[in-house]
Amino acid sequence: MRHAASPTPVSHRQVVGAAKAVGHPARLRILAMLQPGELCVCQMSTLLQLAASTVSGHLNELRRAGLVVERKVGKTVYYRLDDASPFAAWLRQALTLVETDDQVRADAALIGKVQAVPIPLLARGLLSLDDISRRRSTRVDRSPHGPARPRG
Question: What is the tens place of the pLDDT at every residue in 5-59?
């Protein structure tokens, strides 16, 4: 009888760290947002309606737990799920359990719209989630005398 390859050994502290990281509602939402692919901090901040510093703190906790990895492009930091993590299969199973949650579904429905907004606009906080939710076009007029307004 052949045995499957053993998973990467982890300590009980690593398992506890990963479970604690997943155990926070905002971090669980972040992980669900990252399931389709990477997002930058400002995109997640917009979806969560939290300050970028708060989201960065949550992402650091997830990174320390070995659940996400980061990629920097200039000043922008992108995160994605760590497929090489010993917790990857466990995490995907956990995310499957919450995929029908109303908040997770609402986040998933808005990801494409948030990704269509230029990152500098999101990073400067020029559009609210309500503005993005109502957008029909990916083009935005930026008047020097007022807030960004969708064109469409």
Answer: 546 788 999 999 999 999 999 999 999 999 999 999 999 999 999 999 999 999 9
**Thinking of the domain 14-124, which architecture would CATH place it in?**
Orthogonal Bundle (1.10)
The amino acid that residue 35 corresponds to is Q
What pTM was computed for the model?
A: 0.81
Burial of 45 (0-12, 13-18, 19+ CB in 10 A): buried
In sequence order, the 6+-apart residues with CB closer than 8 A to the CB of 58 are: 24, 26, 27, 30
Tokens describing residue 21: 């990281």
Taking the C-alpha atoms of 144, 117, 122 and 118 in order, what is their torsion angle to the nearest 10 degrees? Answer: -70
Amino acid identity for residue 121 in this structure: L
Q: Where are the alpha helices (DSSP H) in 23-99?
A: 25-34, 41-48, 52-64, 88-98
